């Protein structure tokens, strides 16, 4: 892990957000925010409710349009792209509540996320060939659902649904994975497994996580960014952030 | 297995073939030409209903303006037939011979420019498909690219149906007004009013419908079909899996429009006229109920539903005309509240389990086949090309 | 198209057509108010709204007949009684419909649309059976007859003026009620956060029913007013339903000001064009413009930017 965030990293930034602002009827949910994520970094965003954490993810993945500022991903400006173009660029997003297709089986959930046949013609002519099956199986094993491929997704436990959604992102092999509270509602053992999973999948990509569970954050984070009222309050290693008087003030001061 | 999934798996080829046999063999043998022609007319509405299964049942897009496309298809065909019926010799008594009679009545002295290309049958056939498709495309792009859906889309399509009706009625001289385009006689000299022509047209119609059913079945069974179901439940997830959601909606809406237009054109040919009363709000929403009665997720159900409702309508209107609106109203409320999956849902819950039990007990050898069939149903996307791959995966799953 | 008219004629035409537009505007507003409450606040599409309005018109017609029969001396005041009756009857039917149909379908708005369409068919046939297929009209009391001459060429009919006054009165009343009254506040609370509203002790089912009944009741009053300017037939309601939905959607669905503004725009555009073009062309152009604008700006004229 990095000791401080002040040292200028040699690696390129995968994601650089600069001067990002979004206002809803004058209320600035995100206010002049700047944030840089390196390659293969696990960055955790924490902050009190209403700090703008989810909005930042919404802005990156194109769900909300920015009022001002820029989001550059591998040198590509994301603020002008549509959601699906952002996904094609290599950004994957997991929602806060597990968002999976409950009417379909685990296999079909993963298959639909397989990055082939993404336009109308492709979808009409898509065939389930050996390559697809192999990839689905590989991902299913990775997310601990290898023996549940035929199960309907609505029969999975809450934690398994969260994994399935992570799997649906992994099958697309994104370079930036964004997870909104991935361990919310999980049991202790599921949390441990998820932490392992994240450590494993981050080997070749960057991960941006929103999380409230401080133990989990300490387990996975390379660096932590604290948001407050749409702005960065503090940034650095977990220890550094935890001892930052401004953070203590915000979390415990009132 | 949840309901929707079960429905996707329902499109057994055998069910489709039974319907085909019913339409192509049983009905022509059992009915005189008058009744058969009536069935043929009903079947033209079934094109619309099948399209609605795709865009409403699967895509979640309720269009209350499918009559627009039915009408466009029908009017294109009617314009061609009308021009043929308005040759200078046949219209010699008019003050301007050679133009359709209603134009003459409305003091038009020349054929309007947009009627000219309809002298050509080839152009007409293209227009029947392309004009509605283009129109649907424009509406769909404008609406779906801006994420307008649900009730807003329903209202807008209804308004479009209203606009087109008012336009057709208002522009009598160009469209034939409220009476529509009537008195159509021949197609390339072939009299479409004779019994033999009616037989032939019935079969063409039935073949086209079965063709549309196969196309619809292919779409539903493809990945696109599953994406539509997925979109209806979790549009954002589909979007954030890298799909341009609007393009799928545009596609399915255009397909539904083209189906409707084919139905409209066949209506004109079989019934011999086209009028604004098949374009507006009331017919459009009635076509939705045909689809709902059959089961909004079943393309075959839509055909049966259309036949059933229209048969009921005809028999009611003959004996108790004033009761029909009550019955129709009750049908809307009843289907929506008590049987949202329509006839197909009833068949699936009550008839099919018995059928299978019966088959099993009567023929033990068949039982294993039935089980195989069942697994095939659960994996709807299993097509011939992928069978080996899918098999491999299911073996691996069993280990 | 203006060439054939002199300036003064044009002024008169615009004034008269403007006033005709104002009457259309009144009908739109009254019908749209009820719809805006039901659709804007509850997200329910009530395709039978036009039939609720016609019910109000028939109730008014019946009341006027009763007055003519039994109380001819006070015939001049029948309208106010009729309006109250119309409100009560339609609101009661609204509550019944909400209880029996709508509440089962809150999660399926498209199905609500179909079910209420079915209801509208039943009501239409019911009216036809009870009142006959022919249109019925009320006899206006003396004080509503005639017109008020503003200048030589501009005459304003008094019944039209009355309907407009009534519209303003009801609109302000509804706006005040949604803003200030307990029901209005509860409705808005339920719209914004149903579970929370339930948690703080609001009976959300009752609020739904009251809101729906209120919307229908206002339609009944609209029907009452409608008898002042036109006759009533079983299918009169259906003629207005699409226009009214467009008014509500065009205005931005949840905003009453938007509803009024869009009703004004649409009715004025239509009636002014009507004089110069044929009625159907005017209507086609108006509707096309509205649909076109809605395609470009689906959220309507007035709407807030909110976080989805």
Q: What does this molecule look like?
A:
The complex is a heterotrimer of chains A (254), B (399) and C (308). Chain A is of the alpha/beta class and 254 residues long. Chain A folds into two domains: 1-90 and 174-181 and 203-254, P-loop containing nucleotide triphosphate hydrolases (Rossmann fold); 93-170, no CATH class. Chain A is 35% helix and 25% strand. Chain A contains ten helices and ten strands. Chain A has helices spanning 53-61, 83-89, 106-113, 120-125, 130-142, 158-170, 188-201, 214-220, 238-242, 245-252, and strands at residues 13-24, 27-38, 42-46, 68-73, 76-77, 91-94, 176-180, 206-210, 223-228, 231-236. In chain A, the strands form two sheets. Chain A has a six-stranded mixed β-sheet, sandwiched between helices. In chain A, strands 2-1-4-5 form a four-stranded antiparallel β-sheet, with helices on one face. The longest helix of chain A has 14 residues, at 188-201. Residues 1-10 and 365-399 of chain B have low confidence and may be disordered. Chain B is an all-alpha fold and 399 residues long. Chain B has one domain (16-337). In chain B, a hairpin with a 2-residue loop joins β1 and β2 (190-191). Chain B contains 18 helices and two strands. In chain B, strands 1-2 form a two-stranded antiparallel ribbon. Chain B has helices spanning 3-8, 13-30, 33-58, 66-85, 101-105, 121-144, 150-170, 172-175, 195-221, 223-233, 235-239, 245-271, 281-294, 299-319, 321-338, 342-362, 364-378, 387-398; strands at residues 186-187, 190-191. A two-stranded antiparallel ribbon of chain C has the order 1-2. Chain C is mainly alpha-helical and 308 residues long. In chain C, α2 (49-70) packs parallel to α4. The radius of gyration of chain C is 20 Å and the shape is globular. Chain C has a single domain, classed as ABC transporter involved in vitamin B12 uptake, BtuC (Orthogonal Bundle).
- The helical percent of chain A reads 25-40%
Poorly predicted regions of chain A are: 1-10
Radius of gyration of chain C: 20 Å
Strand content of chain C: under 5%
Quaternary:
heterotrimer
- Continuous helix count of chain C: 11
CATH architecture of chain C: Orthogonal Bundle
CATH class of chain C: Mainly Alpha
CATH C-level of the largest domain in chain A: Alpha Beta
Q: What structural class results from the helix and strand content of chain C?
A: mainly alpha
Largest interchain contact:
A-B, 46 and 42 residues
Q: Tell me, what's the shape of chain C?
A: globular
Q: SSE string of chain C, helix = H, strand = E? A: HHHHEEHHHHHHH
Strand content of chain A: 15-25%
Which residue ranges of chain C are poorly predicted, with pLDDT under 50 across at least 5 consecutive positions? 304-308
Order of helices and strands of chain A: EEEHEEHEHHHHEHEHEEHH
CATH topology of the largest domain in chain A: Rossmann fold
Mean pLDDT of chain C: 84
